[in-house]
Amino acid sequence: MADGGARGVEADPWRWVVLTASFFTMLLNAAVSYNVGVLYVAVLDDFAVGTELVSWMMALYSSMFAISGPIASAVLNASDCRRCVFLSGLLSCAGMALSSLVTDPAWFFITLSIVGFGQSLAQVGGSVGLAYYFPSRTVFATGIALSGNGFGSFTHPALLQLLLEAYSLDGAFLILGGVCLNSCICGLLMRPTTFEIKRHLEKKKTESPSHSFKTTLKSAWREHSEILTDGNFLRFLLTVFIFALAFNTTLVFLPECLIESKGYTHMEAATIASFVGIGSLLSRTLVGFAATDQKIGEKLVYVGLNLVSLLVCIAADNLMDYTFGAYFVAFAYGLYVSPCVILFFTLTFYVLGYDNGASGYGIVLMVYGFASLLGPPAYAIMLQIFGCTALFKITGLLFLTSALLSTGVKQHDPAEEKSGLDDDVTKVLMTESALGTTFGSRNFEIIVSVQEPGTDGGDNDHCLEEQGCTKQPGTDGGDNDHCLEEQGCTKQPHVPSDPGGGDAELRCLLDLPRTYDESSTA
């Protein structure tokens, strides 16, 4: 982002409302899939189907939010964070409602995939908006918002179990749909930033009248293809894939290994596993303080967390022989491993910059999702060969590999940015009544810094310098006009800029007020 635009966003107090909305978007929508373990048992109890079919069903449900990441990022690029999050609530609610009508469990592959796609929109929209509102403290803001996922991993399994006991599986799906629908309110609170507005303006100027949804898809495909030619980004994707193979898969097999290998009861194993969520809740917030320190940075934090996680994995098997040790391992796993997930978002912008960050994050989510989908079958084979004692040893080895690969990831050069915030757009003031309209407010004002009449905007500064004239910052007040005339420079009268570029249709689309002289732009 340009410095001027970034300063304007950083000074906007509404960004804290957006941060709160992002937190609840994660809690009420994106984190719902953490109930996958309880849902797995419920589907087995209600339908006479084999465990293998249900296992793949739940694996798809828990990873779909990431697999559909590129589509979610394309939706975001075609609209904005507000519409993306609002749509996520509608889709997740629809998927849950359709799941309550299922009589053949095979339909869950479709209905739960709809839910997963809705969660993907929530994850992408709720995260990317923070990068626009907190350009200098992105890790800090993302840590707070994604702590909603950590809180959800601790609460959603218990919530689903309570709903199953009170309303059965069908009723539980309906109520969860209502929970997800609340994220629509969060989306309405996410005002478009000047970066998003400028992106709309640029796209409108380059799009032809015959622009269609098919053209949008082609553009998104071309953009993703260009990103995938970046060798630095491919190294980062491999880092993400190796980490994701270990992270979610360990959570899947942890209760089973505690029961079979260590002799804990089912209730004890479930309680121990919940401590991963407690550690995750704390660390997702705290890691932001370290990663925003310029002397440390997100990459060093990621490497450090993986190395500490390696030490935890080395000691895990022996520590879990004792009850306190088992709780400590679960808590430490959530404390040191979970923050790496939020760092993937900020590291994506670290590698690609703001121009391609949103699209790149969609690809990162897709890679993360495929690793989460392939991890359990691969781990199951290895555990059959080596036993449950190898669970954390395999995980630790993968964390070490991911840490070593990440050391070769390089930062994007900010000088290569093609877009950003114009310096003349310094402030966005938006006032909304109640919830505003569904897909945007009809009452917000863009304040554009306007130079005083008589200024040349700096275009003729060289003429003034050659004539030895002194030009005060921002204006010459017309006193130096003779210098311009002697040098043969043409000095155009300044016209206040039109944020809509003179395009009435675009101004309507962006809800831009009529605060400029239309006759001057005709």
TrEMBL record:
Coiled coil: none annotated. The keyword Membrane applies. InterPro entries: MFS, MFS_trans_sf, Proton-linked_MCT. Residues 457-506 are annotated as: Disordered. GO terms for molecular function: monocarboxylic acid transmembrane transporter activity. The chain crosses the membrane at residues 16-41, 53-72, 84-102, 108-132, 139-159, 171-190, 233-254, 269-291, 300-320, 326-351, 358-375. It holds the Pfam family MFS_1. Keywords: Membrane, Transmembrane, Transmembrane helix. SUPFAM superfamilies: MFS general substrate transporter. This is Major facilitator superfamily (MFS) profile domain-containing protein. It comes from Elysia crispata (lettuce slug).
